[in-house]
Every structure is written in structure tokens, then in C-alpha cells.
Amino acid sequence: MRILIILFIFMLSVPRAFAQSEPVSEDTTPQVVDSCKVWFSIGHDYLLKKRWSDAIRNYRRALCFNENFIPAYLELGRAFLGKAGEYLQKGMRDSAEMFFDSAEVAYRKVAEIDSTDSRGWQGLGFMYGVIKQEYDKGIE
Length: 140
Description:
The protein is mainly α. Helices cover about 75% and strands about 0% of the residues.
């Protein structure tokens, strides 16, 4: 079953390299939205399995289809935090900081897309308050 899903996604995501050049029509929008959600679902599956790198890769693929898809940014932030945690456990603080910064960028993007969505602000507050312990910045 998983192979069928992967083949389906592959067929949707591969450009029509062998077809003749056609003008893009308006009816391709549902396919783009569906592709975004499919990649997001695959990323979420990897996130639940704590396969952070695979989750990050698939959330980024989802964002290629819809750069304003807030759930992908939120889960991308979580995946970056998970990856940072792995590096902290190995004692690699500098590498962990890189992933913390990436999570911060993801949460900031949520706040940029929709400033009324509290989840982006909560992610930033968590980043500053708990992870980086920059309490004053978290309150801002």
C-alpha cells in the first residue's frame, strides 16, 4: 500500500517532461493543493516516528506546492526542535542551535502569514522561554 502511495505522489509531483508543452490551466489548482496535503501527511507520519530529517524533507516538499500552508510550517518547527534535541543528546550544541534557529524561522513565518494565528506566537514563546531562556524576548 505504501508503495502505491509513493508512486501516486511521484506521478503527481514529476513535471510532464515527456508531454508537449501545454499552457497551465486554472483546473490544476486542486492537484497542487492535494499534492501539498499528501507531502504534509507523509511528513507528519515521519514526525510521529521521530524521523526528523525525513519529516523536514517532506514538509519542505509540501511548502513547494503551497508556501502559505501554516500546518506545514508548524510541524516543520516541531521537526526542527526534535532534530535539535537529538544533537543536544549527543553533546553537539552548535548543531542544535542551527536547528533551533530554523524552528524559530518556521514559527516566525506562521506569524507573518497570519498574525492572528496564536500557534506561531506560541511556538516563538516556547523557543524563547523554554529553549533559549530569553524570557524578555519571549514576552515581546
